[in-house]
Amino acid sequence: MSKDFGIYGGQFVPESLMTVLKVLEREYESYCSSDEFKNEFMYYMRQYVGRPSVLYYAENMTKALGGAKIYLKREDLNHTGAHKINNAIAQALLAKHMGKTKVIAETGAGQHGVATATVAALFGMDCEVYMGTEDIERQKLNVFRMELLGARVIPVSTGTGTLKDATNEAIRTWVARAEDTFYIIGSVVGPHPYPTMVRDFQRIIGDETKKQILDAEGRLPDRIYACVGGGSNSMGIFYPFLEDKEVELIGVEAAGLGIETGRHASAFAGGKPGILHGMKSSILQDNECVVKTAYSVSAGLDYPGVGPEHAYLHDIGRVRYTAIKDDEAIDAFKALCRYEGIMPAIESSHAIAQAMKEAPALSGDKVIVINLSGRGDKDVNTVAKYLGKEI
Amino acid sequence: MNRIDKKFAELKALNKKALIMYISAGDPDIKKSEEFVYALEKGGTDIIELGIPFSDPLADGPVIQEAGLRSISGGFNFEKLGILVKSIRKTSEIPLVVMVYYSSIICYGTEKFVSLMEEIGIDGVIIPDLPYEEYDEVKPYIDKTDIYMIPLVAVTSGDRVPMLVKDAKGFVYCVSSLGVTGGNSNFDARIDGFLSEVKKNTDTPVCVGFGISKKADCDRFNRICDGCIVGSALIRTINSSGGDPKAVEDFARSLR
What we know:
The complex is a heterodimer of chains A (391) and B (256).
Chain A (H helix, E strand, L loop, with lengths): L3 E2 L2 E2 L8 H14 L3 H15 L5 E3 L1 H7 L3 E6 L9 H14 L4 E6 L3 H13 L2 E7 H6 L1 H9 L3 E5 L6 H15 L3 E3 L10 H9 L1 H14 L5 E5 L4 H7 L9 E9 L10 H4 E6 L2 E6 L23 H8 L3 E7 H15 L5 H13 L8 E6 L7 H7 L5
Parallel strand pairs in A: 4-14, 5-6, 5-8, 6-7, 9-10, 9-14, 10-13
Antiparallel strand pairs in A: 1-2, 3-4, 11-12
Helix pairs in contact in A: 2-4, 4-5, 4-9, 5-7, 9-11, 10-11, 14-15
Chain B lengths: L2 H11 L4 E7 L5 H13 L4 E5 L10 H12 L4 H14 L4 E4 L2 H7 L1 H11 L3 E3 L12 H4 L5 E2 L2 E3 L6 H5 L6 E4 L15 H11 L4 E4 L5 H8 L4 E4 L1 H9 L4 H10 L2
Parallel strand pairs in B: 1-2, 1-9, 2-3, 3-4, 4-5, 6-7, 7-8, 8-9
């Protein structure tokens, strides 16, 4: 199995972790390609997550925008409200197979932490979630959710006290405790084999989409839009379409207050090659190579790097990457509520905003799919605050 | 001759073990770093590791992380490292090893980095997040010079040990524990067996680091190995003494 995606990816970790990663790679390759794993994974996908998630024709939105026919891939309808659960279940099954009794995870906004706490409860595993002190303050509700599910939230105050530091601390902890502990990474980031593994666990989104759009339209879509933070929902929906060159793939990063302000989370608009969390990828850095703090109204896109496979797809031009600002994402959030009675996550609202910009210019015989990666209930407070409303 | 080889030859002739000390370069500024280097040398230090600060140092514990952040906010960079080392080299021939995360090398430019190290008189480079599988990114450039790339070996390296040490030059850096730098003296139970295994596989001097903070730790490992590496404990001494070079010198001496 290749550890690199072009010049990106790799395993840039201390030697102490190398044997652990080799064992993980071996177990992943042998167990996750077995029927035993596939059957068990699909059982939980159907019975616990509620898959397949529907591909919904957004008729009102299509008519209002007056262009391409718009479909929404409804990952927001999954148990726990986002695509994160697919990967968390798969990694927990692998952990169980490897005889690990404890899982650890990093979290920024808390979504991946909640997904990990959920699967730990389901499989009876001990769970610790590393979270920056800044994020704990901003995401109190998710901290409480994780605690209700039986997880311990470990505050990380080093560095900037955000997701990137929580991830560093989770990796450091894993180095010391790998004997009985499995590290469930939440996105297509980290050292090999994580980016490949997480992509393979999320490709179910794209595999389902392909089948569903062929059933509905008898052909593949013209464009697929998905938001990109670390990039797991987008890799998941893009991957099965990479060889279908007629399908244009659009990855939407967070432009925050605007790329020109420097207050954003776009690894492609403002990043350069570097190492973060054991991978080589496009990373936001200042002139002295210090990793910069990303900013976005959406906590889930607020990551200073991007998965190495995205960096590769960017360089070879297979995926078109763009970025959406906070205000545009909030407008899209409100628009989808009104058009369809669906409240999207602010993360997913970035993909919706980009599609809303482009759909009117396309003719009515074009078909586009937007990955609605999560539901927006968690974001109601953030949106109210953004709009200056007291609730 | 590389200064590291020269130093180990001298130590061997005297039947002594190496004392290697780590400071975070530029914490709080390069003027202070230079004073610390001289104080360490006076206190009997054989080799000095200059840590290049990085915002996300995966192998380091809180003490070195915070030292690095202070150095970063003091405006430290490779240009300043150049000024620091050139100034040290005017009066001192102590072997200097740079400990640098790979991201900083990529950002500066690999070839440019290697020529800078050569130009200013660095003897070895340790890249804690560049495992054997990724060596080809940097080692070919370093090997064109007289500078040594110091390999790291861990308690969990297992059957990787022969591969990791087979071309080792300068010294082999053995990581004493599974955690990060700055831990306590509760060393991994497998440590002694691991160190003998490394010794068996190489004639290059073998030194131990991570969690070594006092003379008793050094004595314990020097029975099996060729030297010890102390970092976080030194930085704690610097912090608690308010950056007093005399305290630094005394601390180094206390480890001999």
